[in-house]
Amino acid sequence: MTSIKTKNAIVHFNDKVYKELNSYVKTTNPSNIFILADTNTHEYCLPNFLAQLESGDTIVEVMEMPEGEDHKTIDICTGVWEALSEYNADRKSLLINLGGGVVTDLGGFVASTYMRGIDYINVPTSLLSMVDASVGGKTGVDLGVLKNQIGVISEPSMVLIDTSYLETLPQNHMVSGYAEMLKHGLIQDNDYWNTLINFENLDASKLDQLIYDSVVIKNKVVTEDPKEQGLRKILNFGHTLGHAIESYFLGNADKTPLLHGEAIAIGMILEAYISTKVSGLSPEAFKNIKDGILKTFSLVSINENDQKLISNFMKHDKKNSHGIIKFVLLNAIGIPKIDCEVNAEIISEAFDYYNTLI
User: Fold this and answer.
1) CA 307, CA 128: separation in Å to the nearest integer?
2) Closest Cα partner for 299 from 239, 351, 241?
3) What is the pLDDT, as a whole number, of residue 319?
4) How does strand 94-99 pair with strand 119-124?
5) CATH fold group of domain 173-356
6) CATH topology of domain 4-169
7) Bridge partners (DSSP) listed for residue 33
8) pLDDT for the residue numbered 315
9) What is the pTM of this model?
10) What pLDDT, in 10s, does the model give residues 250-265?
11) What are its cofactors (predicted)?
12) Which of 6, 130, 250, 281 has the maximum number of C-beta atoms within 10 A of its C-beta?
């Protein structure tokens, strides 16, 4: 596969990954190499990675963090910063983030702020991080249960996508990443959307190409708008409500936490419904979206009290301005509209409709 150039970095795939990594290490000659992994990728992915890393005389140190969204915190960052300092990391050190979106987001933030910035490389090991979290330079951590409230936009030196790591991934995490791929189709490419929702008819070997296509779509958007002043906001379709739902379920002891993609799938159905009321999405297109998502994702009960509490989380959405909640909606599949204001009655109506599906 042809490597993809981003604004300040490059994404390599499969057969090029370790050749390009080792060439980079040889050329840049980092003073130290640090690898950040979580407990899962340390066990299932790190041995393969280390076997193919040619570090020469450069010292390699491995740092392990707990896995899971609830560990995407400043406290974990502090531990990693302290470890870097303890191992005498300097401005010529390299941090390699080996893991899913939590590791690449947190590790990118750590690298971007340690000594005001050291080089880092993302090696995404989950479908979600391959198609979304590792591309575009968004780094950061959660503030309590509020998603990605603290962070900076800072691109890695390179992104290395080795899809063989997906063999270590549980099925529910594969499904979670699939939600972001569906989103890419809905905001940019009707043909890609139709290919994805008919995925059961495709040979699984075509997944690599679909991952590549998703990275192309996201890269096109973030290259045109790296700081999310306009176009890049379309990547948040399904996320205004989806992130609020994810935060609510994560912070409520009576609820089973949802994976990111599971919450975004709900958010996309709700926001597609809202689109029929606000931005002119046709009923036929909405049915296509709803049915396409529900081929893979299960419905989740959200009662009236849940809805009120979820609405409170929307106040913290990063697209908001001057206290006004802003949505990304759809005019049609592949044609998004940003900065849409939606009244509370329509949001409530969307939840009511969603609950009729259960």
Assistant:
1) 26
2) 351
3) 79
4) parallel
5) Dehydroquinate synthase-like, alpha domain (1.20.1090)
6) Rossmann fold (3.40.50)
7) 60, 94
8) 86
9) 0.95
10) 999 999 999 999 999 9
11) Zn(2+); NAD(+); Co(2+)
12) 130
